[in-house]
Amino acid sequence: MAVTPIAVGRGLRELGLHASTWRKLQRLTTTQVAERAGISRDTLRSIEHGTGTTSTENLLRVMRALGVLDAFVASVDPYTTDVGKLRADEVLPERVRGDR
């Protein structure tokens, strides 16, 4: 199994802390959020603790249950960045091939 890079681990912990804070700000229990997201409390706990063992779908289910899915997805929109804005008119390749 690959070792989790430090920056990725930090991101997982910060994301988990944000999810936990959103839940607490809305006065929701872990049981309520887990039920709304259609996941187990253990999976929610994994997300909130940033262990990195959950699926992307489960993470997005939690963001939806917390009411922040649209903002979460929009936060990684490449066209809101300087590079994305500069290259917005470019036609993107169907796929990017590596060195052979």
Fold and architecture overview:
With 100 residues, the chain is mainly α. It has a domain at 6-72: Orthogonal Bundle (434 Repressor (Amino-terminal Domain)), CATH 1.10.260.40. Helices cover 58% and strands 0% of the residues. α1 packs across α3 (41-49) and α2 (30-37) packs across α3. The longest helix has 20 residues, at 6-25. The model has no long low-confidence stretch (mean pLDDT 94).
Short overview:
With 100 residues, this protein is mainly α.
Throw out a few tags for this protein.
mainly alpha, 434 Repressor (Amino-terminal Domain), globular, 100 residues
Task: Please describe the topology of this protein.
Layout: H1 6-25, H2 30-37, H3 41-49, H4 56-65, H5 69-74, H6 82-86
Low-confidence stretches: none
Round the Cα radius of gyration to an integer and report it.
17 Å
Order of helices and strands: HHHHHH
CATH homology-level superfamily of one domain: lambda repressor-like DNA-binding domains
The biggest beta sheet is recorded as: none
The coarse silhouette is globular
> What portion of residues belong to β-strands?
under 5%
- The CATH level-2 architecture of one domain is identified as Orthogonal Bundle
The tally of strands reads 0
Span from first to last CA?
A: 26 Å
pLDDT average, as an integer?
Answer: 94
Top CATH class of one domain: Mainly Alpha
